[in-house]
Write a structure and sequence with these properties.
The chain has helices at residues 23-34, 42-53, 58-67, 72-81, 101-105, 108-119, 161-179, and strands spanning 5-6, 93-98, 132-137, 149-151, 154-157. The protein has 180 residues and is α+β, with helices and mostly antiparallel strands. The chain has 2 domains: 1-87, NADH-quinone oxidoreductase subunit E (Arc Repressor Mutant, subunit A), CATH 1.10.10.1590; 93-179, Glutaredoxin (3-Layer(aba) Sandwich). The termini are far apart. Bound molecules: FE2/S2 (inorganic) cluster. Residues 98, 100-103, 139-143, 146, 148 line the site of FE2/S2 (inorganic) cluster (FES).
Length: 180
């Protein structure tokens, strides 16, 4: 078995990706359900969506608008008003390390520390050259393959610090090579 097992999932894909098995949509759905799809829950739902997907894509905003029965313009308005929401991936690459309980007990903190060290940025930040945004999440809905991460929109499980650091290194290296 490879150290990193990929499951499907395009980041910010529309709700029809539910059928693809992307658990993040299920988690988002559960969050909205918990709030009984009340429009008042919009900010909390947007927070959850950003935590899960790294940023709020147009498809994601429309999905949320539909579910909460809000005009898309209202959802866009709120998402653009608050500085902590991002409508686009910040770095060219993104890496989100899950720090939820299942992942934490499987060494997620060490994973995060290893990536922080390799990339030279802290969680929540983007490298100065804008190549990599490093994020954390509370649960990606992939506890069965903990520790889990999302790298460039791909959920990966059973991740080791060595493989993740190598992946990040290759990603940054590739970007540097591409510029030459
Ligand atoms: S705690 Fe990490 S995927 Fe659930």
């Amino acid at each position: 078995m490879t150290a990193i097992e990929h499951t499907q999932k395009p980041a910010g894909a529309p709700s029809r990706a539910h059928a693809s098995g992307d658990n993040r949509f299920k988690i988002l759905e559960a969050t909205m359900k918990r709030h009984q799809y009340q429009p008042d829950a919009l900010i909390e739902v947007l927070h959850k969506a950003q935590e899960l997907f790294g940023y709020l894509s147009a498809d994601l905003l429309i999905t949320i608008a539909r579910s909460l029965k809000l005009p898309p313009s209202r959802v866009y308005g709120v998402a653009t008003f608050y500085h902590f929401f991002s409508l686009a991936p910040q770095g060219e690459h993104s890496c989100a390390v899950c720090l939820g309980t299942a992942c934490y007990v499987k060494g997620a903190a060490a994973l995060l520390a290893a990536v922080e060290h390799e990339a030279g940025v802290k969680a929540g930040a983007t490298t100065p050259d804008n190549k990599l945004s490093l994020m954390t999440a509370r649960c990606l809905g992939a506890c069965g393959i903990a520790p889990a991460v999302v790298v460039d929109g791909e959920v990966a499980g059973h991740v080791t610090a060595e493989t993740l650091v190598e992946q990040v290194r290759e990603m940054l290296q590739k970007t540097m090579n591409d510029e030459r």
